Amino acid sequence: MENVDVMIQLPEKKWLNYIGGKWVEGAGNRTIEVENPATEETIAEIARAEAVDVDRAVEVSRQAFESETVRNMSPRDRSEMMFRIARELEGLSEEIALAECLDNGKRLSDARHQAFASARYFSYYGGLADKLEGRSIPLGNRYVDYTVYEPYGVTVHIVPWNYPLQIAARSVSCAVATGNAVIVKSPAVSPLSVSLLGEACEKAGVPEGMVNILCGHGEDAGQALISHGDIDLIVFTGSLETGKRILHAASQNIIPCVMELGGKSAGIVYPDVDIENVTDDVIKGIFSNSGQICSAESRVIVHRDIYDAFISRLVEKVQKLSIGPGKDEHDITPLVSGGHLESVERHCRRAEEDGVALLAGGERVADIPGYFFKPTVFSTHDTGHPIACEEVFGPVLVVHPFTEAEEAVEIANGTPYGLVAGVYTDSLKKALWTAGRLNGGQVFVNEWYAGGVETPFGGTKRSGYGREKGQEALFNYVQTKNIAIRIGD
Ligand code: NAD
Known about the structure:
Blueprint: H1 4-7, E1 17-19, E2 22-24, E3 31-36, E4 41-47, H2 51-66, H3 68-71, H4 75-91, H5 93-103, H6 108-126, E5 143-151, E6 154-158, H7 164-177, E7 181-186, H8 192-203, E8 211-215, H9 218-226, E9 233-237, H10 240-253, E10 257-260, E11 266-269, H11 275-287, E12 299-303, H12 307-318, H13 338-353, E13 357-360, E14 376-379, H14 386-389, E15 396-402, H15 405-412, E16 417-418, E17 420-424, H16 428-437, E18 442-445, E19 460-461, E20 464-465, E21 478-486
Parallel strand pairs: 6-7, 6-9, 7-8, 9-10, 11-12, 11-17, 12-15, 14-15, 17-18
Antiparallel strand pairs: 1-2, 3-4, 5-21, 10-20, 13-14, 16-19
Helix pairs in contact: 2-9, 4-6, 4-8, 5-6, 6-7, 7-8, 11-12
The chain binds nicotinamide-adenine-dinucleotide (NAD).
């Protein structure tokens, strides 16, 4: 019989940075070790970019942006190039799947999906590259006036570790569609799939320097990039705390930013629902990717009439979830690193010490290697407790009871975040009433994560600003120029 472990090894290769169309070591010749969170083994090394590599990347991006090749590329040719990138990503899907299964811990099937979802960004925005049309503005007979959308120039994309390739693809596709040059800083934890985006761009014939990919730590390469004097736009996806540092640096050079930050999103469950369906959906909403999703359903607010029945069915299902490595398609895969496991554990320990009722999980899995944390459910009336307000970013669900709809909305909206929200009901009237009152850039009705590349996504309140995905995301990457022409006396 074939040994499965042989099949899921990464190819022997040197993982490098991609700058100016070339694969290069870091100038300091240092590397970052890449770990498999399911086994705690080092599986690869990647060249570590530092400030001097950042300078080089900015220089070649600027040259590319101003080159005839990029400036004269017609929107239609950009479309064709982006379709080629999409095809190359699909062609690399097995390698991408291995990378995200092994350096991130994802289920192999989810990791494979990442390649196709990332390709979809390039085909979707490739299809829009030649459809961004300006306006003609009437100023009377003596003038012709029109607007054009122009790219910013050198765009910086700072990417988190939870969906590294897909999040990079989300913003890089928009930036390329609109004619910008791109520098991606991949996360030091779980960087390999983003590196494969460089390979797809190279194979697709993207002009040298138009897309550059650096792997580095936030405090050196990241900080050098966001503070650089010759960049034009920052697209940041990550935590609230890092977001504040990004905005501080950006303010020094008046660099516009798109901010995609964290969340503590809640679903409201009215008593008219099918408990079987909704508990399944909540389990998908919080426990997919072991809760390491910015828009995870980390809170659920359930009507008192069905509270006990709901909790009992939910906990019964949670206790049956399988835990193990992504290569074996388990329900709960490892957290991305030892440090992150400790952070999730700290949140849960504090909640337990403060007397929050623990209904399932609440601890790491002690008897196997890897950073596994049991799927966890807390129930509490204390909506102000940190476990109910702070982002844990792990497989941890908090359930609250409610009686009146107004109370449910107040609880849902009662954190500093406002990324997404949800409502479960059979009543269209209740769904519309509730969706209209919930904070969040996106509201899901009867299905968490409903939507796709086509639907705008982004935060309200401390979850950030700007919208990614959908047609309106393109407007993050262009500036309007008005041209007024006097044609007569
Ligand atoms: P993080 O903020 O620690 O890191 C994000 C990125 O910022 C990494 O590449 C990191 O190296 C870099 N970075 C860190 N310090 C920096 C600095 N001083 N200058 C420049 N770059 C710096 O976040 P994380 O732990 O990688 O990701 C988890 C967080 O991301 C969660 O809060 C999650 O909600 C959020 N997230 C948001 C979205 C969204 O679309 N809204 C999507 C995914 C993740």
